[in-house]
Amino acid sequence: MSDTLDNKVVVITGGSSGLGEATARHLAAHGATIVLGARRLDRLQAIAADIGAEGGTAMAVATDVTDRNQVQNLVDTAVSEYGRIDVMLNNAGLMQQSALKRLKVDEWDNMIDINIKGTLYGIAAALPQMKQQKDGHIINVSSVAGHKVTPAGAVYCATKHAVRAISEGLRQEVKDYHLRTTVISPGAIDTELPSHISDPDASEAINNFYEASAIPADSFARAVYFAMIQPPEVDINEILYRPTAQPL
Q: How far is it, in rounded angstroms, from Cα 177 to Cα 170?
């Protein structure tokens, strides 16, 4: 096991805030080269500049994960700039909560496009390069909601269950290429995630829950780091963690 990430090229989607930002800063502090993707380019550039000012290396690429070509461009840019990709962190995600009877079909589509298809597009973009290298690590982000189903969370939970299924299928398929796979399922983390809930009843319930239980995003960053620093023969396939105060 090595605690340094020198020369590791890490691509992170959803890198403009929350889990992605915290992980970018944490990994860069341990020597990784970071390629950040998200829609908010100004925010990405500010984070990359901060990392650079602290002695790290990071670059920003505007990326909407619902557009396969943009995700491919993100990975291609990393490879063009740094010669390889060591870790693909498919982190971009959206949590919108409402009872199915509310028929918020547009929100269902949003979550399917970002949480499921965005993860698949990240895999599709990174996998050929990693197969060629015969080295690499794909990390997908599920949730405690990928293990449980909650009222008003049916579609969100379904997308996060799907991420776990995809990750397990990927794990089984990439052994011949010496690739590693990890799916991380966090509980309530202090991020922007609850701010996307438009249903007032669900919003109140989730925000009360987060106010009581949520822990900082650097908890996720440390989980990513732990999975990455294992020796090549050790593959941490799944991490499920919660705030100590979270009963669900």
A: 12
